[in-house]
Structure formats: C-alpha cells, structure tokens
Amino acid sequence: MTYIKNKKQLLSHGSMKIRKAALDIIEYSLEKADPYIATKNLVSLKNNNLHVGSLVFNLDNHKRIFILGAGKATFPIAKALEEILGDKITDGIVICKYGQEGCLKHSKLYLTNHPIPDESGLIAAKKVIALAKKTIPGDIVFAGITGGSSALMPLPIPEVSLEEKKVVNKLLLTCGANIIEINAVRKHLSQIKGGRLAKTIHPKADLINLTVSDVIGDPLDYITCPTVPDTSTFEDARNVISKYKLWEKLPVSVRNYLKNATSEMETPKDLSDHQLHNFIIVAGDTACVAAEKKAKEMGFNAMILSTMFEGESKELGRTFAAIAREIIMNKRPLKTPCAIIGGGETTIKLEGDYGMGGPNQEFALSAALYLEDLKDTVIVGFDTDGTDGPTKIAGAIVDSSSTCMAKKLGISLQHELDWHNTVEVFEKMGDAIITGPTGTNVNDLKFLLIL
Fold first, then answer.
1. What is the DSSP string of 160-190?
2. Whole-angstrom distance, CA of residue 160 vs CA of residue 278
3. Which residue, 38, 68, 44, is CA-closest to 56?
4. Which residue among 96, 198, 232, 352 is least packed, with the fewest CB closer than 10 Å?
C-alpha cells in the first residue's frame, strides 16, 4: 500500500536520493503500524471457537458479539473483525473522523469532527451508551477505542453543554498541555470517558479492548479511557487548570463543577467485577521502531534518540538541526550515513492571532531555519494519522533547499513560524507531506537523515 500521495512533488527539488530514503522510511513505518494487520494477527475463528491472543471463547456459549469503537485508528480494527466474524456480529457502532473511507456491513459507521467535537459526535456517543446498556451476561463486546476518541465521541456531563465542552477542548489543545493533562480534565467532564462506558456494559459480558496507542508509555486509561479504570482524579484535573492558568477562561458551569466536585462524583477506579481483557495491538513507539529497522536495512547507521519527546515542537526542531550539525562536524553520536529517530507528542502553545498549522510542521519549519548550509541532510516531522493538528497535511520534509525556496518565494520562515502559519508555507514550498487518513494513530515520527 502506498500512503504518501504527493511523492512526485516532494522529490522534485532538494536532494532526491536522501528525500526518497526518508519517504521510504515513512511508508514502511506506517505499514508496520497498521491496526488491520495487527487485529488479523491477534483474532481468529476456528471451529466456532473465537481466539483472541491466548483467550478462547466457545461461541456455543456466547451467542452475541458487539463492536463499539471510536478513534482515528478504529476503522481498520472494525473492518478486520467483520472479515473474521461476519454474521456472528450482532450489532456495532463505530465512530470515525470525517473523511474516513470505506463501509462496514455489520456495524453502523458514524463520521464526526476532530479535534473539536460536534453535534454528530454527541448523537453517536449517545447511541454507543444505548447499545452498551443492552448487553447481558455471556455477550462479547469488542471495544476498539483509539486516539481521537475524546473529540469524536463527546458526551459531556449534564451540567455542561456541548458548546461549553468545545470551549474547554480548544483551551486545552492550545495551552501547551500534554495529552495526559488534557485527558485528566476531559475525563472528568464526561459521561462516557474515564471508564464510564465500561461501567455501562454488563459486568458479566466479556469486554475485549483492542487499542492502538498514541500516548507516550502506552497507559491504558489514556488510550482506551472509556473502557478501563481511570487513574486520574478531580484533583489532577484541577491542577492542570491551575498550571496553565485556565480558571478564568473556563465557562462558569465547568469552573463550578470542577471546583465543587466530590469523591462520590469520581470516575470508576476499579472494574475488577467486570470481565475485562486488554490488548494493545499497536504500541505507541511502533513507527519509531520500524523507522530504525528500515533505516538500518537501507545502510544507515541508525538509532532511536527517544520515543518520549514532549514540549514545544519548534524547540525540538532546532535541537534536531543542532544534532545534524554535530554529526557532520564531529561525527557523533553516529557516523554518516546515519539516521536519528525520535517520537512522542510535542505541542504548540497558541496565544492571540495565529495561522494554520500543526506540531510536526512547526518541528520541521524550525529545523529548516538551520539547514541551509547542510547538504544531503533531511529532517522530517510526521503525524502518523495523516492529519497534523487541525490540518489536512501529515507533516513536512525539509532540507537545505527549503530556505532557498522560501527566499525565492519571498517567505520569511521565522515570521511564519512565530505566527504558527505552517500549512500555507509548506504547500507553497512543495514540502508538505500529504497522505490523507492513514488508518493508524501511533506517536509522532520525527527523524533526521544524513548521507
């Protein structure tokens, strides 16, 4: 399968050989992070026995099978389950982002908005809860909750409207908070997150979580949070609001709810009375591990620098450019040809007016400012789901030709970076990586290649 749709454009300028190597690494990394393949490898049906890893279910004793899912990597999981189980699926609801292609025969597919929730998502979330309430002892429920589910499946508490939840979501996404901090707040304003969906499913039904991680360290309650116990608390949520000075910016209803919340209002911390089975079918660092393997196969000295990068994207971009200079001048930490690979979830802090962009684009644009005199060197920032931030591009690839192209077009890269206006820049320069939805959603992939 080919993921990158504009390869010809990306290879039309700069160092073609090193750019092609970078694009090949991206393609391989996405293939290895495919949830469809991972689901097929984990789940099988043999002689009316359903195998999920080491689990075996005799379907003579389990008459009904349901699929509940939401997220940017959920459709391939549902598609694989449908191919495996076919008519044995009783019903299902799968919520995906607008633009998701394909159809499902045995589950209803709902398309909703991301990263800011919308009314369609609210309607779909209510249908998920309604279906969960229908479960009875002996049912099997596959939950395919993956990254993006928080926005795609919104069901705010009665005290907070969807419009107010949108305000909170936007504040959290633009304040510089990481996903752990963001979700600590969102889970405590939801009727479905933080284990509440699992609580709705009958405790004598088997709940099987198949999930793809887009969170550093793969913590279950942040990658499939509606269907596992919650480790965060109201106090954690309040601390996040204080840390980023958001109290006065919050809608009054949200402010009052969080400040006055009691222990009786907490999310579920213990689901030991439920028959819960958890499988991370694609880990968060999968793209990085695959990138390292592919780079080595291509003859590069390769290393993963870290899969736990957080903080400001533009600062990490500058750091990668500094590492490139260190390698070229001092041959450390690796000798050329080499690949330095990183992953994680970096962020952008937005204030005042700003343009359109995403964290991986800012990483790449920041790096480009320091690459003008470095030949046969490329740096890539890539969001594995194919949409970096609230944009339609997956990321960008930059090299010494990028600053030259910017000057030719009369673009001030520093000005556009300061304004967080990266989409327009990379589209004009021909350095935007376009994939569309990839069907997966693991941690971001950032890497440096030098011939």
1. S-HHHHHHHHHHHHHTT--HHHHHHHHHTTB
2. 31
3. 44
4. 352
Q: Which residues contact 247 (CB under 8 A, 6 or more apart)?
A: 241, 255
The confidence band for 152, taking pLDDT boundaries of 50, 70 and 90, is very high
CATH number of the domain enclosing 339 = 3.40.1480.10
Q: How far apart are CA 435 and CA 392, in angstroms?
A: 9
What is the DSSP code string of 187-245? HTTBSSTTTHHHHHS-TTSEEEEEEE--STT--HHHHSGGGS-----HHHHHHHHHHTT
**Strand 43-46 to strand 49-52: parallel, antiparallel, or no bridges (unpaired)?**
antiparallel
Give me the pLDDT at residue 351, please: 83
Q: Which of 32, 154, 106 is closest to 438 using CA atoms?
A: 32
- Domain encompassing residue 122: 35-155+190-232+267-282
If we measure between CA atoms, which residue out of 294, 281, 280 comes closest to residue 29?
294
What would the two tokens of residue 308 be? 């736990």
The pTM (predicted TM-score) of the whole model is 0.94
Domain shared by 52 and 17, yes or no: no
